[in-house]
Specification:
mainly alpha, two-stranded antiparallel sheet, 2 strands
């Protein structure tokens, strides 16, 4: 797959350290706040409350989505995830702060929400395998790709330009990389939305 002079395979290979950083930040934040839940004050308690609020909002969102026709529900989930992912990517040029915060905060919320579910008797292994991974494999793949290039935007466009390039040239180069992987990100998010609406609910009903 080629676009704007970069192949998707080349872009992923060239940015594997940024991908690892994005995934590591998300996972570390999730694990930390999973074990901090409900916490001993400060941010942990704030996230505990946010996790409970998110679960309530998620239930309302689920109720809204299930009443939509299947194609409309898939489209709704896709558009919501696409806008969030692209926003993180495009705002990365501002010191990489937005993708950094977004990766850490989403990891923290997943960790706190998982802890809240486990505290109510849900099996963590089943929750991960049947409630998160089926669609999360695709969704997180797109999320980490956007987060990785968002972090790269911030570092090379502000702190340190790419070798042999100035900051504006670095921006153009990374922008071409971002455009190159956009079809893959869109495909992953579309698959995630489809699986989240069709397969994940069946697995949750059967195993959770």
């Amino acid at each position: 797959m080629f676009f704007a002079g970069h192949s998707v395979k080349e872009v992923i290979h060239r940015n594997r350290s940024w991908l690892f950083m994005a995934a590591a930040l998300f996972i570390a934040s999730g694990v930390f706040f999973y074990y901090r839940f409900p916490g001993t004050g400060g941010l942990a308690d704030l996230l505990a409350g946010e996790a409970g609020l998110q679960m309530d909002q998620l239930q309302k969102l689920v109720n809204f989505i299930v009443n939509l026709p299947a194609p409309a529900a898939v489209a709704f989930i896709f558009i919501n995830n696409f806008l969030s992912t692209v926003q993180m990517l495009l705002l990365g040029a501002g010191l990489g702060i937005m993708p950094l915060i977004t990766l850490a905060l989403n990891g923290a919320l997943v960790g706190a929400t998982a802890a809240a579910a486990v505290s109510e008797g849900t099996n963590l292994f089943k929750l991960i395998c049947f409630g998160i991974l089926p669609h999360g494999i695709f969704e997180l793949g797109a999320f980490f790709l956007a987060g990785a290039l968002g972090l790269k935007f911030g570092y090379h466009c502000v702190a340190s330009p790419l070798p042999g390039l100035n900051r504006f040239q670095s921006f153009k180069y990374i922008w071409k990389e971002a455009i190159s992987i956009l079809p893959l990100v869109v495909s992953l998010l579309a698959l995630a939305a489809l699986v989240e609406m069709t397969i994940t609910p069946l697995l949750i009903t059967r195993f959770l």
